[in-house]
Amino acid sequence: MPLECDPTSAQVLAGRQKTRRHPAGARAGWHDGRMAESTKVELGKVQQTLFFPLLARARATRGRRPLLRDPKAVEMVQAVDFDLTAFRAPMQFPVVIRTMILDSWIRQFLAGHPAGTVVELGTGLNTRFERTDNGSVHWIDLDLPDTIELRRQFFADTGRRRMLAASLLGDDWLAEVEALPGPYFFVADGVLPYLTEEQVTGTLARIAARFPGSGLAFDSYPRVALEWEHKMAAKRDIAFWQWSCDDPRTLERFGLRLVESVTPTRPPAGVRAELPGRFRYLLPLADPVFGRGLRVNLFETAPQPPAPGTTE
Questions:
Q1: Helix ranges (DSSP H) in the chain
Q2: CA 129 – CA 157 distance, rounded (Å)
Q3: Residue 128: its pLDDT value, please?
Q4: 242 has a pLDDT exceeding 90
Q5: Which helix (H) or strand (E) holds 169?
Q6: Strands 117-121, 184-188: pairing kind
């Protein structure tokens, strides 16, 4: 079952009409108070979906037995001047476990490449750097200009981590990444479903061609989930998904190799071990529903071929 929710093809990352979802006096769905000086939000419709994972992390953090701790998410939810009602996920735990899975793969990458570079594609208001920073990683938070403008209200560039305002569909950002030390790991959390299939496969192929031997992790959803999401998005007047993928292995033809593909109900062993006992018990019961929707996928791009006249 889908976890987030406008089918707008070229609009997705090319800049759209900006909207402030803030009816007079309305901040329904979040009752933890507002900061004295709230942050105005003007985002394109697809960019607004960053509030799905943000709300999920904030609510998980404020739970009695949190799956993860993200006080920055709580701070940002309280600070934004925006009606968040439409972005409350029906079930938050799959979104949170998706985040935990992606975090775990980045930690694995950094264990082997502590000074490598991580690129968060469509970063939104993610706080993955704060959770996975090892003190030496290089990091780029990539998103459209309106999102980066909002993000700068809460984060600042440092010597190892910086924000980059660019379209995922363009090429300029690729050179910015190449200027940083490899190897590289690319992560997209709740981003690619809002692109068209041509945009998704084109982006994956460009990354594979420019960054051989790199890691690449993202979520995907089958067509049945796409149909369900469209119904929910229409009711909530929020962005529609455009891309679905019934079998992640079909993406290998774009220069990728599937390393692992998991679901929130069957996470990697390391992630499962971090979950409270009640979640480990309940996950198999949720598998018939959530186990057939969201998949979290880890790929490797094809390695650099040996130079002519050399042997491996």
A1: 51-61, 71-79, 93-112, 128-132, 145-151, 172-178, 197-210, 223-236, 269-274, 277-290
A2: 12
A3: 97
A4: yes
A5: none
A6: parallel
Three-state SS at 259: strand
Using one digit for the tens of pLDDT, what is the confidence trace for 188-214?
A: 999 999 999 999 999 999 999 999 999
Is the preceding peptide bond at 183 cis, omega within 30 degrees of 0? yes
β-strand pairing of 138-143 with 161-165: parallel
Sign of the alpha-carbon dihedral angle for 91, 130, 239, 177 = negative
Assigned token pair, 50: 């960053």
Q: State which H helix or E strand residue 215 sits in.
A: strand 215-220
Q: 91-130 as b/e, with b when 16 or more CB fall inside 10 Å?
A: ebbbbbbbbbbbbbbbeebbeebeebbbbbbbbbbbbbbe
Q: How many angstroms separate the Cα of 197 from the Cα of each of 32, 72, 84, 98, 123?
A: 39, 33, 28, 22, 20
The CA distance from 163 to 181, in Å, is 17
Residue 20 pLDDT exceeds 70? no
List of domains in the chain = 39-87 (no CATH), 95-301 (3.40.50.150)
Q: How far apart, in whole angstroms, are the C-alpha atoms of residue 174 and residue 214?
A: 13
